[in-house]
Amino acid sequence: MSEEVTVEKPVRERHRKLSGVTRIVALCLSVTSIGAAIYYIFGITIAGLVFVDTGYYFFLNALLLPLVYFYFPMTQKAARDRVPWYDWGAAILSFGTAFFFFIYAFDILLKGWEVAPPETAWAFAVVLFFLSLEAARRTGGWGLFFVVIFFTFLPLYQYQL
Length: 161
What we know:
By secondary structure, this protein is mainly α.
């Protein structure tokens, strides 16, 4: 009787295990997002300040979108033991662009940025769109990526259908 020896391939995790500064930053972003949700949902006011709906969503986007870049690597072969500089850059850029829209939430609503945004806001919106698209690809795969692309451009050719 011979015993068969099976060699199992090591399972490669889909996400990173954070440590050090990255873990602290991720924890702070997560706790702050929970606090923001409590503040918004229960209508808490501090010094008469409340979240505008648009501002709340951009604030959550600023807090949670960087976590995608911390936890999910760009490719399957990317390092899992550390967060590379380009993921840090994408996380900082995603936080900054979404926080920009959070700061200008009242202007977005009151000055009609949906129709005619300032050039700076338009540029930030394009950056945030591509960062969100990359986050969707990392978390949902190429299928979700192409579904989002399809529905993004659907209004441009829908009238011809």
